[in-house]
């Protein structure tokens, strides 16, 4: 590609395309973060976020990547040596486990095949076996971005309740919040972890913890050392719309605009749009004759689709060709999936024709890279998008 005219297609599953409205909102001059004007911004955002998390609980915002919010969730609720039950859904669950181990938690990792979501029955069994109540937390990734398999958080909640266990439920929604239905209160989640750069359509740099009353109580006696990540000063300052240290003001402008956009479209419509695009993408993959990595159709992610290539083809080579020829970035295979899968992000600020363009780039790339496939994926997707009632 000589000169990359037109827009770059950023079809990785986060960061996602940042809409012009949000870019413009962030271009405003930074204001005094101790001013009355700032308090108005802070209060509007903190309230708007509750709709997206579907909660009435407190939500805190850190100037950090999502990884920081993982750490905040652990150090605010737990103590060194506590046992935590985690589920091996894929690369991100594995990274969260490594973090927990580094912090000094005792992690019980339920094995998985990286092609399914977390298994509520396995969680229930592990909790029933924990007769001494040593497990203090259950940590699950809602939408495993490395595999495109989503876990049933309602199912995990039911498993914990059936086992009659008091462990806290911690959930990573970094690639699902604002794209897939997620109910912090109804599903009895204690800490929800999220980030700015995926469904919320913002650049990277903000992360979130939604905190149940039970988690807040647990934080009063949690013994991990913490200072920057400490919820308490954050929750206290947030009551009046402020932050205990300099917030990422311009990202908060962007967040204010993102929340307005989600509200204008209607959060249910946003979820429906994502599931419709995901279905169209899967129809394309099937028509190409390639395999969707996620093996359980009830667990398909709405925000991304991971596609398995035949063993003789390298997915990174395919992605290289597509970037070079069509100026489109696709997600790589992560961890043990490197070179074996590529991931199509269809989340955030996205519409039918952007999806059509994305799938066209993939289909042309498959031909150029010599990946055996049947043409017709794009046609299958267009047939679905064009006919189905909205
Ligand atoms: C992107 C992602 C992360 C990592 O977030 P960072 O902002 O890169 O720290 C963690 N978990 C999931 C499920 C993700 O999609």
Describe the protein in words:
The chain has 390 residues and is an alpha/beta fold. It folds into 2 domains: 20-263, Aspartate Aminotransferase, domain 2, CATH 3.40.640; 267-387, Aspartate Aminotransferase, domain 1 (Alpha-Beta Complex). Helix content is 43%, strand content 15%. The protein has 13 helices and 14 strands. The protein has helices at residues 20-26, 36-53, 66-77, 91-103, 120-129, 153-162, 213-221, 231-238, 249-265, 267-288, 315-326, 352-368, 377-387; strands spanning 9-11, 58-62, 83-87, 106-110, 135-141, 143-144, 149-150, 168-172, 191-195, 207-211, 291-292, 304-308, 328-330, 341-345. The strands form 4 sheets. The protein has a 7-stranded mixed β-sheet with strand order 2-10-9-8-5-3-4, sandwiched between helices. It has a 3-stranded antiparallel β-sheet with strand order 11-12-14. Helix 5 (120-129) runs parallel beside helix 6 (153-162). The mean pLDDT is 97. Pyridoxal-5'-phosphate is lined by residues 14, 65-67, 92, 141, 145, 172, 174-175, 195, 204. The site of pyridoxal-5'-phosphate has 12 residues, from helix 3.
What's the layout of helices and strands?
Layout: E1 9-11, H1 20-26, H2 36-53, E2 58-62, H3 66-77, E3 83-87, H4 91-103, E4 106-110, H5 120-129, E5 135-141, E6 143-144, E7 149-150, H6 153-162, E8 168-172, E9 191-195, E10 207-211, H7 213-221, H8 231-238, H9 249-265, H10 267-288, E11 291-292, E12 304-308, H11 315-326, E13 328-330, E14 341-345, H12 352-368, H13 377-387
Helix pairs in contact: 1-9, 2-9, 3-4, 5-6, 9-10, 10-12, 10-13, 11-12, 12-13
The structure holds pyridoxal-5'-phosphate.
């Amino acid at each position: 590609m000589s000169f990359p005219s037109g827009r770059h297609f950023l079809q990785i599953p986060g960061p996602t395309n940042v809409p012009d409205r949000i870019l413009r909102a962030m271009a405003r001059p930074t204001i005094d973060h101790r001013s009355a004007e700032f308090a108005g911004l802070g209060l509007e955002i903190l309230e708007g976020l509750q709709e997206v998390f579907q909660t009435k609980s407190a939500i805190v915002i850190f100037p950090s990547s999502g990884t920081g919010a993982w750490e905040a969730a652990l150090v605010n609720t737990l103590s060194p040596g506590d046992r935590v039950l985690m589920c091996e859904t894929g690369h991100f669950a594995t990274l969260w486990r490594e973090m927990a181990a580094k912090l000094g938690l005792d992690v019980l990792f339920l094995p998985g095949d990286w092609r399914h979501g977390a298994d509520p029955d396995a969680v229930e069994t592990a909790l029933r076996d924990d007769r001494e109540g040593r497990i203090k937390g259950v940590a699950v990734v809602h939408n495993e971005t490395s595999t495109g398999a989503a876990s049933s958080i309602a199912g995990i909640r039911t498993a914990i309740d059936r086992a009659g266990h008091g462990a806290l439920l911690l959930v990573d929604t970094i690639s699902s919040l604002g794209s897939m239905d997620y109910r912090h209160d109804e599903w009895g989640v204690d800490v929800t972890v999220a980030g700015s750069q995926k469904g919320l359509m913002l650049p990277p740099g903000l992360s979130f913890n939604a905190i149940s009353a039970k988690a807040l109580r647990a934080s009063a006696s949690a013994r991990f050392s913490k200072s920057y990540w400490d919820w308490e000063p954050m929750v206290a300052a947030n009551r009046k719309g402020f932050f205990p240290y300099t917030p990422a003001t311009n990202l908060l402008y962007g967040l204010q605009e993102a929340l307005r956009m989600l509200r204008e479209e209607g959060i249910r419509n946003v979820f429906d749009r994502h599931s419709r695009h995901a279905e169209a993408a899967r129809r394309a993959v099937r028509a190409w004759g390639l395999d969707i990595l996620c093996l359980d159709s009830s667990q398909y992610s709405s925000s991304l689709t991971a596609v398995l290539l035949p063993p003789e083809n390298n997915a990174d080579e395919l992605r290289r060709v597509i970037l070079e020829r069509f100026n489109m970035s696709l997600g790589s295979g992560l961890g043990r999936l490197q070179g074996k899968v590529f991931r199509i992000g269809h989340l955030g600020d996205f519409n039918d024709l952007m999806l059509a363009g994305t799938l066209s780039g993939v289909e042309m790339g498959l031909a150029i890279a010599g990946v055996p496939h049947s043409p017709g994926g794009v046609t299958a997707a267009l047939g679905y998008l064009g006919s189905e009632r909205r």
